[in-house]
Amino acid sequence: NLTQRLAKVVKTMRGEARLTEANTAEMLREVRLALLEADVALPAVREFISRVKQKALGEAVISSLTPGQALVGVVQQELASLMGADLGPQASQLSFATQPPAVILMAGLQGVGKTTTVGKLAKYLQEQHKKKVLTVSADVYRPAAIAQLQAVTAQVGADFFPSHVNDKPVEIALAALDYAKKHYHDILIIDTAGRLGIDEAMMQEIAALHGAVKPIETLFVVDAMLGQDAINTAKAFNDALPLTGIVLTKLDGDARGGAALSVRYITGKPIKFAGVSEKLDGLEAFDPSRMANRILGMGDILALVEEARKGVDVKTAQDLAQKLKVGGKFDLNDFKMQLMQMKKMGGLSNLMDKLPAQMQQAANGANMDQADKQVRRMEGIINSMTLQERAKPELIKASRKRRIATGAGVQVQEVNRMLAQFEQMQAMMKKLKGGGMMKMMRSMKG
Ligand code: GDP
Ligand code: MG
């Protein structure tokens, strides 16, 4: 299983400061395998790996991460950005910036989910955008296809423009457009015929349709289970039509969704929606980061890396490491900083939830909620100290302890216990010569 394979690599090589050819090679091999396993087409995999390499090499490793973890972070970010994370949330919006009716043209092979998606889109546009929607089928080869569109349209309560098997696709589309204008529809969605494979006649037909109705959105519908073939199909449709977006269907299945990466790589167009059910409410705005995680199949590890990235103030951690390296002493200010970082990460109990089951078992027995409370209390005690006391804890004798305890609303024993814990930590830090959060936590778990 991939997550386990990656987890193994992720753990190695702690303590290196930068990502290098040497310490990333094994990891990149795993990532490459992961992508191929997720059915990403080979050219897309190659391009992706080379991009990650460029981004990663020389990047500093946050002290709380291993190079493996740092690389996972780069891989995830780069994959999410390739999936469209950089395009921002508006990338999944449909455009209506035209004189109504705005025309949406659906393109894609047979069986990928075009007709179903027309129904889903009609429902979505009516409910989310209060649009008046008309649908029409230009699939004149199979009477059943027209009836299917009529049925899904009725199901969502949109209007349907009837067509017949002997009609010509372009004429059907123009008649529907005319009807939509006269009846004040905001949107006309045109369903088209697909073939089982790429077919020149089909491409010409849909290109002619496009020329006649000038859609504001031309959506390429692709089945997430299509795997390696997705890249060729996407290329053919992208060459024949000025696509404006992609709909990735059947993501509720167990496909890892490598098709998403292939299609993005070849078309560069935004994936706007994801189909997640046969039912007509099964349409979601596409989420690039979630897709990246799905393709890599390592949600849990990523969540942890992400948490560490967010929570640990890199500068603070590096300053501390530097200070200790040049012989500085770990004082109560540093201790407090570490406690605060722990809090930023959502506390110990939150972190524990994210660890893989085996690690959780290894740490069992420790009561994390209790530990979190303890952390908050220790912070309160430090807050009651003067700056001088924090920098020179050895100043803190009996009378000062009493004052601090009163200030923090605790017993003097609590202050003693806290100082003892601090001294333990100080000793440990001396040994570690400036490690960070993760090191500290690991040793706390024993
Ligand atoms: P078309 O030939 O491109 O028009 O494809 P259809 O809309 O007829 O869909 C083909 C099959 O895929 C039907 O059985 C649909 O119910 C199913 N389907 C479409 N979209 C999805 C989806 O997002 N999830 C699942 N599980 N099935 C879907
Ligand atoms: Mg159809």
Automatic annotation (TrEMBL):
It is an enzyme of class 3 (hydrolase). It catalyses: GTP + H2O = GDP + phosphate + H(+). Its EC number is 3.6.5.4. The keyword RNA-binding applies. Its main location: cytoplasm. It comes from the Bacteria. CDD domains: SRP_G (cd18539). It is found in: Cytoplasm. Belongs to the GTP-binding SRP family. SRP54 subfamily. Involved in targeting and insertion of nascent membrane proteins into the cytoplasmic membrane. Binds to the hydrophobic signal sequence of the ribosome-nascent chain (RNC) as it emerges from the ribosomes. The SRP-RNC complex is then targeted to the cytoplasmic membrane where it interacts with the SRP receptor FtsY. Interaction with FtsY leads to the transfer of the RNC complex to the Sec translocase for insertion into the membrane, the hydrolysis of GTP by both Ffh and FtsY, and the dissociation of the SRP-FtsY complex into the individual components. This is Signal recognition particle protein. It comes from Undibacterium arcticum. The gene is ffh.
